[in-house]
Amino acid sequence: NESKQLQYQINRFGKGERLVVVRDVTRVHRLEQVRKDFVANVSHELRTPLTVLRGYIETLSMSPDLNPVMTRAFEQMQQQSDRMNLLINDLLMLSNLETDDNERNQQTVQLKPMLDMIAADAMALSDDRQHNLIVKCKSDIALIGSEKELHSAFSNLAFNAVKYSSPDSDIKLSISIDESALTFSVKDQGDGIDPIHIPRLTERFYRVDNGSRNSDAGGTGLGLAIVKHILLRHDAHLSIESKPGKGSTFSCIFPRDRYQILENQTVEAVD
Ligand code: ADP
What we know:
By secondary structure, this protein is an alpha+beta fold.
C-alpha cells in the first residue's frame, strides 16, 4: 500500500526512438530518511548529557585542592568536551538543513552590515595572529534568503580563512555582481589546498591532513558540508580555487533572482 518513488531517465536515439528507464528508488529514499532521522535523534539526545558533564567539569576544575596532574586532566576534559559540543552543534545544524522546509527563506538580507559583523568576529578569532580583514561590499546590495543561514555559511568560510592562513596575511571578503549573478568570495593568502582534495572538501568529515596546522585548527570537518547545503537551499553553488602555498578563494555564486539592489540606501564608497 506504500507509495513508490520512481526515477525516470529518457534516452533519445535517432529517428524519434526513445528508451525510458524507470528505477524504483523507494528503498534508497527510505534508507536516506532513516539515516537523517538517526543523525538528528542521536545529536539531539547527546546534547543533554554533554551539558551536564560540561557543568560538572567546570565546577570541579575550580576546586582549590587540585594537584598539577588533576589540573592537566581537567584541561583535557574541557578541550574534548568543547570539541564534542562543536561536533554536536554542527551535526544538528546539518540535520536541520536537510529536514527543514525551505519556504521560510525569503528575507531581504542586507549584506554590508552582515559582512562587517563577520569580519569583526573573524578578527576576534584571529586573536594575536593579526590577520588583516578587508570587506568590499556596497551598502545597497541584498540577498533574498535566510539571514541566519547566510550568516552561518559566510562566517564558516571567513573563519576557515583565518584558521588556515598565516599571521599578518590579508583576508578579503567581497561581493561582486553582474547581470546574471552575485558572487560572495573569501580570498586568503594561506596554505592553499592540493587540487586532489578540492572535489571532496564539501563531504562530511573530510579534512586535509596537512600537518600540525589542521590539528591545531580544531575544526569538525563539517563546515564546508554545511556551506554546501545552505547554498543549495539558496539556489547557489560553491566554487573553490586554490594554489598550494599561495592561498585560496572560496566563492558562493547566487543566481540573479536571489539578489536585489535596494533603493533609498545611502550608498557609501566601497571600503
Ligand atoms: P574544518 O572544521 O576541518 O575546518 P571544513 O569542512 O570547514 O572543516 O573544511 C574541510 C577542510 O578543508 C579543512 O580541514 C581544511 O583542510 C580545508 N580548508 C578549508 N578552508 C580552507 C582554507 N581557506 N585554506 C586551506 N584549507 C582549507
